[in-house]
Design goal:
Layout: H1 2-32, H2 39-57, H3 60-83, H4 91-113, E1 130-131, E2 134-135, H5 140-162, H6 164-174, H7 176-181, H8 186-208, H9 220-233, H10 238-258, H11 264-278
Antiparallel strand pairs: 1-2
Length: 292
């Protein structure tokens, strides 16, 4: 029973990281109909920025917020300089561009920082919490991860539903042509969407790296599982992204705990293949996905 609780609560913690990646993918897909395969590379690069600030200042929170800010900037720059020329072109063009951007970012990180593994500090203790003698399988760092991602998801939902910025984002996502006729500067809105996606990716990077290591390819497997979470929840749904991330995290935690950690990524890819075959719009999607 104790193992079951530990694996379940631990899965929620890592599932929140998958949810952050899934949210970044949903943001970009809703606004531009592009799947950003470079999201993991962007998250890795901004985590290096946070690492350098923490290392040189000794201040974790300064590094944390600088990392998030660098995610905003990197997302906006990538959209303006790299992604925008692919708009209106065949869908394969955008796929190739984002994969090329991933390779570029990982190669650049290797040139600047080297390929060695680096430890990244956690915001709070990674020592497991207990109730009496009963281990919960989560740490204060896991609790912070869950709270941070949930807060970011709630803030995003409030922005979409109750602000003029959110209205413009939704208008550009559903009908960019009509949005332009109504005076919405769709180009700026798309840049904002990529910037917010960069922020969510940076959040995932700084939250997950303390439990792994930081190196140029460190976010590749996390991206794959975050993409799986987005597909499970439906690429149209921010709520589905969070739910899909938590569901995937819990299932893979049980797989790793009972069957072995070597099978986690295999089961993640199997889950992705099954969802794409059975319900491509997402298991938790409210309805079929919009067509381009």
């Amino acid at each position: 029973m104790q193992e079951f609780v530990e694996f379940g609560l631990g899965g929620i913690g890592i599932g929140m990281v998958y949810a952050a990646i899934a949210l970044s993918l949903v943001l970009i897909w809703r606004g531009t109909r592009v799947l950003n395969y470079s999201q993991g590379g962007m998250a890795m690069f901004t985590t290096y920025v946070a690492y350098l600030v923490i290392r040189h200042t000794g201040n974790y929170w300064l590094g944390f917020f600088v990392g998030l800010a660098s995610g905003l900037v990197l997302g906006a720059v990538c959209e303006r300089a790299v992604i925008r020329p692919s708009y209106g072109k065949p869908p394969l063009n955008a796929v190739i561009v984002t994969i090329g951007l991933l390779i570029f970012l990982e190669g650049l990180a290797g040139l600047i920082y080297g390929g060695q593994y680096r430890s990244f500090p956690a915001a709070y203790s990674v020592k497991g919490l207990k109730i009496g003698k009963f281990a919960l399988g989560i740490s204060p760092a896991d609790v912070f991860t869950a709270v941070a991602v949930l807060a970011a998801a709630v803030a995003l939902a409030l922005v979409f539903q109750y602000t003029s910025v959110g209205l413009r984002l939704r208008a550009a996502a559903f009908s960019p042509g009509v949005a332009r006729l109504l005076g919405v500067r769709v180009g700026r809105v798309l840049t904002l969407g990529w910037a917010l996606a960069g922020l969510f990716g940076a959040l995932a990077g700084v939250l997950v790296t303390p439990s792994t290591f930081l190196y140029p390819n460190s976010m590749d497997s996390i991206f794959v599982l975050g993409f799986t979470a987005a597909v499970i929840g439906g690429l149209e749904s921010p709520v589905g992204a969070v739910a899909g991330g938590v569901l995937l995290g819990v299932v893979l935690s049980f797989v790793g705990g009972y069957l072995g950690s070597d099978l986690v990524l295999i089961f993640g890819l199997l889950a992705l293949a099954l969802v794409l075959m059975i319900r491509p719009s997402g298991l938790l999607a409210a309805g079929p996905a919009r067509r381009v």
